[in-house]
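Researcher: Good morning. I'm working through a list of sequences from a screen, and I'd like to move beyond sequence-only analysis. For each chain I'm collecting a predicted structure so we can compare shapes side by side. This is the next one on the list. No need for commentary yet; just the structure.
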Amino acid sequence: MEGNMTNLTESGSQAVPLPGVGSIVSRFFYTREVPYAIALVRMIICSVCMIIMGPRWFACRELFSVDGATTPIAIGYSMPNWLPEFNGTIVAGLATLMMICLFTSAVGWRTRTSLTIAAILFTYFSCLDSVSTMTKYMVISTHVLFLLSFSSCGKIWSVDAWLRWQHSTDSQPEMGETWCRRCLQLLMCSFYFGAAFTKMHTPTFFSGEQLTYWMMTELTIDHPLGYVIAMYPPLIVAMGYITIVWEIAFPLLVWRDPGRTVMLIIGVLFHVMTYFTLGLDMFPPVCFALYLTFYGDRDYQAVGRWFARRLQPALRFVSQFRMPNLSIRYPQSLVSRSSFGLFAVFLLTGTAAGIGLEHSLDRYGQRRAEGRYALTPLDHDVADRMLAPLAPTRESDKLFAFDIGTFLIGDYVGDRCREFWPGQTIVAQCSFVPPHEDMMVECNLRDADDRLVERFSHVAPREVFNCNYRFPITVTSEPGPHSLVIKIAGQEVARKSIRIHNPALAAR
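Model: Good morning. Structure tokens for this chain:
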């Protein structure tokens, strides 16, 4: 089919043949380029994975071995023995081997072998601890490591590249096929596209309830900006809709400028805000690493030339003190054999050292003079409080917020105000703390003497998180200070003062 299609002008003359589908796919996946992008992805992703798994190495016996309490994801699919589970000593060795291979992958030493071992062990440990280790960014990282293990990401900016340079006369960087970079691009696009469809089927995302309560928790790390933005639900609703539009548009516009620049800038701002508002610390750098794949080798070469022009005076100064080239070039076969032998020794030695270090930590106190650690008896008063029936929740603790305005934005009060005029409608909204039972919620409008002016009641089912009450202001409304009172189960839980202006009645 390639080359058979032609483009005809209006006069019927034959123009330049259009490329076929096979040619387009071949150019997309198999064009040769210098693998700058995937080399950067290799270094960033492996470094992030080391940061993720570093603290877990100290608890590998508890998390991943039969000495602790593993939580394999396969149990949820009725396959309890899908992955083998080992004792603590073997797991300590495997965890150490994984950390070493992540490091050697980051520096590019025996890159493909290191990435293969790291990808297998990283995925294995993630699947053994579905409670804390397996997260969204861990799933993305496993796919990235798998793709990189088949790629040419070690041809530049690596120990392997330096060793090849030692016995090569060609100073130009090696080139590789672009298929890995394209697969990483498609992975990122599919991730955003799938996230958009998931959010579309989550009603609490569009209402802002999901993000609001997430911002007010500290399940990850401290994020003080989240508490501030949580006080403005309409802003959260607007951000939710913008996120949906951006995630759908990302796979369509990210391939060429100016759409690429716009989509990536919005993506950087989005993930930075997830750090400051939701406390996501490891997810943003994983996404930023994949953003680098949307630039080709020409883009990186242009950036390199720009930095070279800016740093040229400093480079000329440093070149005055350059030492003579004393490097000794060895035959390629000798370098390859010595590198592989040293790499194998490094892995074996490091793994043995990791096993010894984990053994010396003695997490269970087996080698203490006092014996194994034992549970400390709980104080009787504390035990009685823990075993006592749950105290009923106070009605005031069920109310999350009480807002007053004149109109709604995405089911939230759009303008918070306290003064109202004829023709306007007072919108009183009370939001509840989830979970809650079915409740009778009442909103009363009272005058300056605390006399009841108007009353509305709603049943708030357990799946509802807010109730809205509307009080129209007419030309007959009495001017002056008033109060809006919220009652749950007949008990007052909130009161706010407002003022109604009515110049027609005030002049009488």
